[in-house]
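[Automated response] Your request has been received and processed.

Submitted sequence:
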Amino acid sequence: MKILLVEDDKTIASGLEYSLQQDHFDTVLCYDIQSAQKIINHEISSIDLCLFDLSLPDGSGYELCKLVKQKSDTPVIFLTAYDDEVNVVMGLDMGADDYITKPFRIRELLSRIKSVLRRYNKQTTIIKLHNIQINTLEGKVYKNGEEIIITALEYRLLLIFANHVGQVLTREQLLERIWDVAGDYVNDNTLTVYIKRLREKLEDNPQKPTLIKTVRGLGYKVGD
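Generated structure:
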């Protein structure tokens, strides 16, 4: 999977490029509108997703988004320092698929990227969570490179967490999603059992989980 990243702050760009590559994405990095336009005009067919900073030294990410959408159906996510409704709406109206406001956590950005790619049926095959890897093509889970045997419902529950990194999911939300995906009846007590089993298989110390965290009074979330 190849991502076109356009960001003029070289420190931020370097950090994003490294994180994306660590998550098994190939990257094409540009620092301005002019160089990005060349990539879009000649290589957009090889690009799976675009990350555009909204404010660039020689123009706006809006220009790049418009050019991309004229040439292809490639998804676009804006990186913006402007957290106001006008800029957000303008970007979405131009065809952008999502936006994320700086400063942001890299795990949140990766979650947004994977969510958008799924909507476009450009499935990522490897999802990394700390020392856990999920190979969605094979339906297998690995911890520190060694395969972990989990049940079908445990796998589905883990995917739900993996697709919502950094987000708090209530027990009701988890039950609804498991029902939608599995088609099996899962009650509140059963959910507790499955979360316990997942922790026993995936956590280094199930009594002090660092992967699937409990948010007291709210639910659970996968930690960054």
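Summary generated for your ticket: Residues 36 and 103 are 23 Å apart (CA to CA). The mean pLDDT is 87.
If you did not submit this request, please reply to this message.
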